[in-house]
From TrEMBL:
Source taxon at top rank: Eukaryota
UniProt organism field: Pipistrellus kuhlii (Kuhl's pipistrelle)
Cross-referenced InterPro entries: FHIP
Full protein name: Family with sequence similarity 160 member B1
Length: 178
């Protein structure tokens, strides 16, 4: 209940406060997520009782807005930050641990929306295809999981991206198995 109130309060402050440059805003939301893990001692509370889902959604919105403001194919500072600081790798680790409970579902949703909403090709980036590959493996570990719908949506968007650019399949082939 308290986290819902703080989330509403945060949105009100964001609406009234002068807007930050996109990158500062993006970094703020990412640091808010990491700050949760540094400060919290109650890792049993579900992720929906935290501000993590709203921070992830804000980060996505910022990335989409940044892409719309840039010329086609140009990577903006927020996307550069995401790639350079290996945010997807960190999110994968948090999703795998499913801490707080429900984090795996949030991570799958973030990846799905990121790959679906961003028009520029992300999969060729090593800091994208490696965590995507790990998340694909994670999807197959447990049958009939509570995140089954999110796993299917994630796998479908990855397949759609591979269908758009078939050469990308090379990033997902494990040569040691062939």
């Amino acid at each position: 209940m308290f986290s819902k109130f703080t989330s509403i309060l945060q949105h009100a402050v964001e609406a009234l406060a002068p807007s930050l440059p996109l990158q500062e805003d993006f970094v703020y939301h990412w640091k808010a997520i990491t700050h949760y893990y540094i400060e919290t001692s109650d890792d049993k509370a579900p992720v929906t009782d935290t501000n993590i889902p709203s921070h992830l959604e804000q980060m996505l919105d910022i990335l989409v807005q940044e892409e719309k403001e840039r010329e086609s194919g140009e990577t903006g500072p927020c996307m550069e930050y995401l790639l350079h600081h290996k945010i997807l790798e960190t999110l994968y680790t948090l999703g795998k641990a499913d801490c707080p409970p429900g984090m795996k579902q949030q991570v799958l949703g973030f990846y799905t929306k990121l790959l679906g909403r961003i028009k520029q090709p992300l999969l060729p980036h090593i800091n994208v295809h490696r965590p995507v590959q790990k998340l694909i493996r994670l999807c197959g570990e447990v049958l009939a999981t509570p995140t089954e719908n999110e796993e299917i949506q994630f796998l479908c968007i990855v397949c759609a991206k591979l269908k758009e650019d078939p050469y990308l399949v090379n990033f997902f082939l494990e040569l040691g198995l062939i």
